[in-house]
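hey so i finally got around to running both of the ones u sent me last week. sorry it took forever, my laptop kept dying halfway thru and i had to restart like 3 times lol. anyway pasting them below in the order u listed, first the sequence line then the structure token line for each. didnt double check formatting much so if smth looks off just lmk and ill redo it

first one:
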Amino acid sequence: MCRQRMEQKNGSSLTGFLLLGFSDRPQLELVLFVVLLIFYIFTLLGNTTIIALSHLDPHLHTPMYFFLSNLSFLDLCYTTSIVPQLLVNLSGADKSISFGGCVVQLYISLGLGCTECILLGVMAFDRYVAVCRPLYYTVIIHPRLCLLMASASWMFGVANSLLHTVVIFLLPFCGRNKLDHFFCEIPALLKLACTDITMIQSEIFFVSALDLLLPVAFIMFSYGRIIRAILRIKSAAGQRKAFGTCGSHLTVVTLFYGTAIYAYLQPSNNYSQDQGKFIALFYTIVTPMINPLIYTLRNKDVKGAMRKVLWKDYDSR
């Protein structure tokens, strides 16, 4: 019923969208298909490995790895909501996506992106307590609180995405269906609207600013306190361990928020569609692929767990 109302609002002729993507660069499409397919495979393998290790190794049954496995699951779902459709469009002449498919893609990708915004803030809080309140860590960050914070992140993402999706697809498109992007995203969809969207753009900008900048401010505040606490550690080895653990999370935060802020908080008159596409490639496929590498290459616990699982599997043979 909701879909029927949206289609009536947008005109009965609008049954789907054409994702123009990189169709103006046919030679680039083949290169992108091969590169993105490789990246997608590594994304699946890397994030699945993090989730599996977090469940298989008892030493990783800690709040930090609980949140990390949530992040890996988020990245898996987020990439899968976009990349398979992109690969299909890159590999053939058919660039279409159904109206319902576009609604679902926007809802899922936006919901997972909003969830990750909150989850990264939760992970910063976890690191703050671990470094600045180590004696009270197990008391403060107990399993029930971990589950509550993770659930709240997911619920906020789902609710926020539902609101944005309904607002976007209630706009009249007047039969316009050529979407100058490789997936259904808010800035590109707004360009198809055949009505004054100044107020809606302002509202979306304001909500996006809250979604992005509030977690960033909280993360920066947390890491300011963390750095102060680390510098008070007299042991050089202790400082290196603390910086190594927190450095991984801070790298992920920089990569994710930097690209998201560029995509959603840039004034529309300065927004370059071509730049937007390549930035979107970065946060839809590159960042989810890099996250497992950042955590495994800089984390002795994860590397140790991987060795244990591999040796156990080898010995069982």
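and the second one:
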Amino acid sequence: MEPPKVQQPGEGGLNVTLTIRLLMHGKEVGSIIGKKGETVKKMREEVSASGARINISEGNCPERIVTITGPTDAIFKAFAMIAYKFEEDIINSMSNSPATSKPPVTLRLVVPASQCGSLIGKGGSKIKEMRESTGAQVQVAGDMLPNSTERAVTISGAPEAIIQCVKQICVVMLESPPKGATIPYRPKPASTPVIFSGGQAYTIQGQYAIPHHDLCCPSYPPQQLTKLHQLAMQQTPFNPLGQTTPAFPAGLDASNQASTHELTIPNDLIGCIIGRQGTKINEIRQMSGAQIKIANAMEGSSERQITITGTPANISLAQYLINARFRDVAAMWNDPSSMTTS
């Protein structure tokens, strides 16, 4: 039996109920919740009148799932509020920054893997059409999220472009329902509380402090922690390690011509970017769509070279994610309690 045909956006709307799941980092969730929960309360009040609900997964996880359920028009309204809130955060972070080009807003949808083929289309035709018609950059992760049958779909661009792109994705998802059972992605809980003392991290287990070796990066002595913190705090969120962020072309995807950008990172901090068994660098590659190569350590050199190849949008997103990684790790080490919330 063929799925029901759905009206395209702009042709009377989509008169159906849909559930969309978003994957957000702790700090993104914090922005949505707002001080004393005021932001999410306002969002819920505005969309609930249209019959939609916004739920945020519980638990001390580095990532959280934000679920939006309701009529599609209300879902688009919720997406608009989230996208504009993230853009507001970007503008505020640039207020004291020398950066001249504004990076894109980025949202990650969680989509059943069985529907991703329809989003991509034959030979990539559908995803190319979405990029060209909306001006948003869309990337479908090649691998499924851990312990699930879902993939991350990353959308980057101006809020208006993101909203239009989400509308088109909803149409595809409604016309091509998931096949078989879907195992939903559930973010893993964060590590237990960690303290830092004498150049060593310790996990608190009951009354004992156990040396901790399972962090995303090595335990840094105080002087390296200071360097990491300075690198993260001195740079703008979108201008990693002193490099110049390339300006975005109109619509973010005006040019598909690949280019290369290089930056250098202190050799003793490269572990933060690579992550445990390469998990973090692989995540950055998937989210940005860029090719990222890390040069081998050179004898006598205290720095490592990173080469990023892709479209201007790919490169800028990769730079943003790399710098965000430094900020997150610096914040984690300076405020160990944040490990349970971000």
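quick thing i noticed on the 2nd:
The chain has ten helices and twelve strands.
anyway thats it, ttyl
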